[in-house]
Amino acid sequence: xxxxxxxxxxxxxxxxxxxxxxxxxxxxxxxxxxxxxxxxxxxxxxxxxxxxxxxxxxxxxxxxxxxxxxxxxxxxxxxxxxxxxxxxxxxxxxxxxxxxxxxxxxxxxxxxxxxxxxxxxxxxxxxxxxxxxxxxxxxxxxxxxxxxxxxxxxxxxxxxxxxxxxxxxxxxxxxxxxxxxxxxxxxxxxxxxxxxxxxxxxxxxxxxxxxxxxxxxxxxxxxxxxxxxxxxxxxxxxxxxxxxxxxxxxxxxxxxxxxxxxxxxxxxxxxxxxxxxxxxxxxxxxxxxxxxxxxxxxxxxxxxxxxxxxxxxxxxxxxxxxxxxxxxxxxxxxxxxxxxxxxxxxxxxxxxxxxxxxxxxxxxxxxxxxxxxxxxxxxxxxxxxxxxxxxxxxxxxxxxxxxxxxxxxxxxxxxxxxxxxxxxxxxxxxxxxxxx
Length: 436
Fold this sequence. Notes:
21% strand; 8 helices; alpha/beta; 5-stranded mixed β-sheet
């Protein structure tokens, strides 16, 4: 089984805030006493941190649930609960994080040490010391901690490489990578020898260096799921230059020019923007008998199908076996990289706006629906948050929640919808009677 994993679906849950406390001063020499319950602590965030030592999402194969610790509860003597530490989750460079529900990209993590909060912890609930007023100097009210954010995420790893090697299976991509870098990819005389992307560092004679990725062989129909291409086409997206490797000896019985057109069609079908990347055509296996004649025919077909004003791609005849032409190819690749900018993977429409963890002023504070059993059901982010932070063990807190609902217009809205005295109203799993 391959130890390379480039996609994962996980669930993250930030820590809840600690509950506030109801307490009172009872010292012998403090005659009037007063509230003394402290606030709860903040729940821990779930934070993704890029670790350049990781090369795969294999750590997420069996560990798919990540939950941060909740904050401590408030204590007597006005002491606040301790906030919980953030849960650090390490991910490899090149990890894209999406919200599984919306499909929006949350962040693209490419730099070593880069951090991103994927789920924010809830704030601590207030203790009764916070609710003291001249009218109510000894309140028996405290808040529960705010629930931590919970979400399902899709992780997608796109390897970080400056140059990507593409081409049909068995055209010599792995052999080329093995002779220009210190990488040791698996090489065999059969299709799909490469089943995972291989990375290697190249250093040219002039001292320049760049990263090269040998990507699993594409075949016709890869962008629609044929062969292995659909799994690994994503890794080409981060590359700035594409080396299109072609078997010029036609040892597989295919026409080199038709191979060239077929692979470009798959790249275009997968993502139109891949065709923006500059390509260098690598005419491989030039040590074979028919290669020179095939290269001549290839160039003629290429020129005939290009507009006379269009710039033809560079073609470099090489032999990975005899190492012929490699130095020239690498120098030209380094030169092309110098003048090729990085390509943005995502535009603004694909990125989720910077997270706002308050309430959307335009969103309705609550919604009313009716269940099959004729129970009125209240829902909505603001209402549910108030409900979750209410301590129903304290009568004053329950009365406060009832006043908040009335202030939000819930009573009037239920009355308008036809609610009558004694009707059941449900919030989550909590039910109460409507009193007109």
